[in-house]
Every structure is written in structure tokens, then in C-alpha cells.
Amino acid sequence: MDDEAKTSGHSEAWPDGAGPEPMPRLFRGLSGRLLWLTMIFVMMAEILIFVPSVAGMRMNWLRDRLDTAAAAGIVIDGLQPAELPRAVQDDTLLATGTKVIALRKDGTSRLLAAADLPPQVDDQYDLAHTPLLASTRDALDTLFFGGGKVMRVFGPVGESDMIIELVMTDDALRKEMLKYSKMMLLLSLLISLITAVLIFVAINRMMILPIRRLTLSMQTFSEQPDDPARIFAADKSRGELAVAGRHLSAMQRELQRTLRQQKNLVDLGLAVSKINHDMRNILASAQLMSDRLTDVDDPMVRSFAPKLLRTIDRAVGYTTEVLAYGQASEAEPRRRRIRLAELCQEVREILAIDPESGIEFVEQVPPDVEIDCDGEQIFRVIHNLCRNAFQALLAFDASETAVVRRITLTAHRVGSVVSITVDDTGPGMPRKARENLFSAFRGSARSGGTGLGLVIARELVIAHGGTIGLVEKPGPGTQFRIEIPDCPVSLDDYRARA
């Protein structure tokens, strides 16, 4: 039996029968994806930084060439009207990396040095008036499509009104830009790798490892949920995952308590099923012997015999219905109108409170109050509440003679609802019993109790469409209120009866 249960539980938890799914490897799980995403995002950020930086690098390179040519041009201009020898011009052009150097001054332009004049100029750049977007566009054009193009670059010489002009190819510029791009690429890769590793280590410590602990705890707990050693050991930090761990630990403890309660219910049902068979036989024999008491001529025996017979009949009915509670639920109420005062009087007689106990039983139920209910089921509810009150008063400290020990049973009708109140002057319910009022094995107010009585009472009242609850009262003691509405009659049933 146990082996079958274990096998069944394993197949339900893991339908494919392969056992719990293993955790992914470190770099193939969430942390690995985070590592790659971090590198990609850092590279994207570096690209956004690279575009304006390469445009700035291009402008600085051109300004350096322009400044160098301007210094040489001022020297050459100071030698007027003499003309530089050809060798000096070639050295000047080689030093500046240009083909033509011209100086514009006082509205006139003078060619300072020239060699291999190009037939045409492909692009012109005014370094004094170059917008950022235009500079970025020109830089990308030179980087991706440059090489072999002739460009004319001009700009002012310092703070003067002179303008220096250069004509050169973009080969040297593109070479420097490619070198700069490679350096930026390597630097970006290094930055992204370092950033990703740091984030990887931090996230693994703060998130991935705690998540793996939570997942592993769920897996091990699901394999054997009744083992207390498999409950997740949560820490006391303030992080979100620490809070989730504490909730998981509390949930696992609550689940273990629920499993223990279910086991208790299973054991109780098995014990009741064993006792029920023999109990019915004993009660049946007692019922046969009690039937003969009606033939006895003793007046006292005749007065007690009907009550004894009703009690035995009720006990037999309980034994036949007790297994239904363990297997499914209580039977549907067989409702009819009864006088509530007679039912409460029967509860009082069954309790049989000894006058010497000092406990009073006050019954304040008007004789004209009728209730639409299953008499046996409501009797069980009221009898259970009154018996609990009686046992609480018996356990109350009897040495205090001034303490009034009383059970008050009242009822009244408001419209189509009958309200029944069971009140006592006992010590009241403990806090734990209040918190688990209608929970089996947890809602008992006395030591050794199971709390099943209130659970059964609540189920019976709900089956009638009513409510039952604990009422707060200013003084000591416990007060329960039951409200039972009349059973509504559908129009079709009314017409059928009419």
C-alpha cells in the first residue's frame, strides 16, 4: 500500500517519470544570458559614444593640419616678394601632408606651395562653420567610403582675418580614423567584458544563487514534503528574495501542518470505520432491550423510556452517518418546520446538568418560534455548542463562589430568518482557538479536544444556507450566534403543491 502511494505521488509530481529537472549550468542559465546581454548593451552604448568621438577626432586631425600649414604659410608670407625654392615647397607640402597651400589675406589669395595640382576637388570643408550633424555625417562618409578623394579644407589663422586653405587627399585621414576605430573597438570590448563580469559576479551573488537555493529547496521538499529537515532555511535580510524565502519557508511549514492534519483525518476515519461496525451492533442490541422497557408498568420507567429510545435511535443514526462525513460530506438537510422550543428542551434534557454542579441552564425561546430545518442536524449543532459551554464551565474555577456559571439559550425570528444564540459566562476562548475556530484539530478550546465539533456544526449550518460565528461580548464568556433562513420555495414547486 505504501509503495503504491509513493509511486503514485512520484508520478503525479513528475509525469514523465524522469525525476526533477536539473538546474541549468551557470553560463547557460539566467546569469549566462545576463552576461551576454550586458556585453551587448555596453557595446551598443560604446557605439553611440563612438560616432561623435570619431567625428571629433577627424575635426582635430584636420585642425592640426590646418594649424601646421598656417604656421608655415605665415613664414612663407613674410618672405615676400621672394619666392620659395622648389625643394623647400616640396618639403613644406610633405611636412603638412598636402598638395596645395594657399593664404587668403586682404581679399587676395596667394599660392604659397603647390605640387601635382588635382584636376578637381571632391569635397570642401569649412572648419570655422561646421555643424555637429554635418561633421558626424562627413566623418562616417570618410570612414566607410573614403580613400583616394581630394578635399579642400580652409579655416581662419588664429584670431586674424587671414584664411589658410589646403588641398589634400583623404588617405592619411582615413588611415588615422581606422586606427582610432580599432583602438576604440578594443577598448569597448575590454570595458564591456569587465562590466559584464562585475555585473555577473554581483548578480550571481545577489540573485542567481538565492534563486537556485529557492529552486533546490522546492525540488527537495516536493520529493518528501513530510520531512521537516527539507524546509527552506530562510535568512533575516531585507531583500526581496529573502522575503520570498521566508514566505516559502512559512508555506512549507503550513503545508506540512496540513499534511499532518490530513493524516490525522485518515487515521481517524480508519479508526471510526473499525469502531462503527461494532458500535452499531451494540446499539442495536441496546435498542432491542430498550423496546421492552415500554412494557414495564413502573411509572418512572415509562417516563424515561421514550427519552432513552430517542437517544439510542439518534446514536444509531449518528453511527450510520459518521462515515459519510469522513468520505464526502454531510447528507442534504431534510427540512420541515418544527418548534424550536421543543428542540431546545430536548437539548437541555440530553445534557442532564446536575443541579449540584452550580451551573444554570436558562432557556429563553418563545414557544411560537418555528424554524425551517432538518431537526436532527440543528439538534446536533445546538447540542454541540451547549455541551462545549457546559464543559468549559465545569473546568472553570469553582472555588470562586461569587462567580455565576450560566448557559443561556435564546432565539427569535426576524422576517424569514431565525437567530439562535448560545451564551455562557465561562472563561472565554483562548487566542489560538479563536484564530483557528473552525479548523479541525486546531480549533479546540480545551486540552485533548479535536475541534471537529465546530467544524461539523459549521458544515451543517452552511448546508441550511445559514451562518455561524463567534460574537464579541463585553463581559467574560463565549457567545455563538446561528442564523438559519427559511428555505425559499420556487414558483414551480408552489404551483405543483397548489
Blueprint of the fold:
Blueprint: H1 2-13, H2 30-78, H3 86-96, E1 100-105, E2 108-114, E3 123-126, H4 132-145, E4 150-156, E5 163-169, H5 171-223, H6 240-291, H7 299-327, E6 336-339, H8 340-351, E7 359-364, E8 370-373, H9 375-394, E9 405-414, E10 417-424, H10 431-435, H11 452-463, E11 467-470, E12 479-485, H12 491-497
Helix pairs in contact: 2-4, 2-5, 5-6, 6-7, 8-9, 9-11
Label the CATH architecture of the domain at 329-497.
Answer: 2-Layer Sandwich
What is the terminal separation in angstroms?
57 Å
Q: How many E-type strands?
A: 12
Strand content: 5-15%
Largest sheet: 5 strands, mixed
Structural class: alpha+beta
Overall pLDDT metric: 78
Broad shape: rod-shaped
Number of helices: 12
SSE order in H/E notation?
A: HHHEEEHEEHHHEHEEHEEHHEEH
Strand order of the largest sheet: 2-1-5-4-3
Report on this structure.
- Among the domains are: 164 residues, no CATH class; 169 residues, 2-Layer Sandwich (Heat Shock Protein 90), CATH 3.30.565.
- It is built from twelve helices and twelve strands.
- The chain has a five-stranded mixed beta sheet. It has a five-stranded mixed beta sheet with strand order 7-9-10-12-11, with helices on one face.
- The radius of gyration is 49 Å and the shape is rod-shaped.
- The chain starts with a helix and ends with a helix.
State the main characteristics.
12 helices, rod-shaped, five-stranded mixed sheet, 55% helix, disordered N terminus, alpha+beta, 498 residues, Heat Shock Protein 90
